[in-house]
């Protein structure tokens, strides 16, 4: 049962964080690339971003019911905003000379963004992904205590409520911490790749 709970928690994080990355990176790159669009969208981001994902639990349950979809939605929200903000900041911080050089070589705007701007902004984007992954792991535990009936978060609350098995509570907490450390270590290794660290991707 423990391995099943671990697998359920990791699966929910993988789906929620994965969706947030697939959606958030292009959105952040587009907003960073088009400042006028960013000025329009930024107020909405700044209103929604400070809202804790935990505050969305009642709404998630109303729309998705009690189950995986509610937890995955909460994880998506938790990861989406840090990823978007990191992408916007990464693109905005790339020196303008990079864009001019791309234009001088005849690159289209799409190629400049994908082959020049994105590699240069990648170190900062990875920092945002790392923060988003950490928040996602925190949120899945909280969501599982309320919105689902499996996972490490559910194990913690269920062990406390049924029989006051505080040994299981502490054990689950330790596992949560160790998995969080492993996830952080894994994404830190990506940051240490030389082509990423220098904001440059080899090849075409």
Automatic annotation (TrEMBL):
Residues 6-187 form the ABC transmembrane type-1 domain. CDD domains: TM_PBP2. Keywords: Cell membrane, Membrane, Transmembrane, Transmembrane helix, Transport. It comes from the Bacteria. PROSITE patterns: ABC_TM1. GO terms for cellular component: plasma membrane. SUPFAM superfamilies: MetI-like. Gene3D superfamilies: MetI-like (1.10.3720.10). The chain crosses the membrane at residues 12-35, 47-66, 73-98, 136-157, 169-187. InterPro entries: MetI-like, MetI-like_sf. The keyword Nucleotidyltransferase does not apply. GO terms for biological process: alkanesulfonate transmembrane transport. Pfam families: BPD_transp_1 (PF00528). It is a multi-pass membrane protein. Belongs to the binding-protein-dependent transport system permease family. This is ABC-type nitrate/sulfonate/bicarbonate transport system, permease component.
């Amino acid at each position: 049962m423990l391995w099943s709970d671990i697998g359920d928690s990791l699966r929910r994080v993988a789906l929620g964080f994965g969706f947030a990355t697939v959606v958030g990176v292009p959105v952040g790159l587009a907003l960073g690339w088009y400042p006028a669009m960013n000025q329009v969208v930024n107020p909405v981001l700044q209103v929604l971003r400070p809202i804790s994902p935990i505050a969305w639990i009642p709404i998630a349950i109303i729309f998705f019911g009690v189950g995986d979809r509610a937890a995955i939605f909460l994880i998506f929200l938790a990861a989406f905003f840090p990823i978007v903000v990191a992408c916007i900041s990464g693109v905005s911080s790339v020196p303008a000379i990079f864009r001019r050089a791309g234009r001088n070589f005849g690159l289209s705007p799409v190629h400049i963004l994908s082959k020049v701007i994105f590699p240069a902004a990648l170190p900062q984007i990875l920092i945002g992904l790392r923060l988003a992954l950490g928040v996602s792991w925190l949120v899945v535990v909280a969501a599982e205590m309320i919105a689902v009936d499996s996972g490490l978060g559910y194990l913690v609350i269920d062990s406390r409520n049924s029989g006051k098995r505080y040994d299981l509570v502490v054990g689950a907490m330790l596992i949560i911490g160790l998995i969080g450390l492993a996830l952080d270590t894994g994404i830190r290794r990506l940051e240490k790749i030389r082509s990423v660290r220098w904001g440059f991707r080899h090849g075409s």
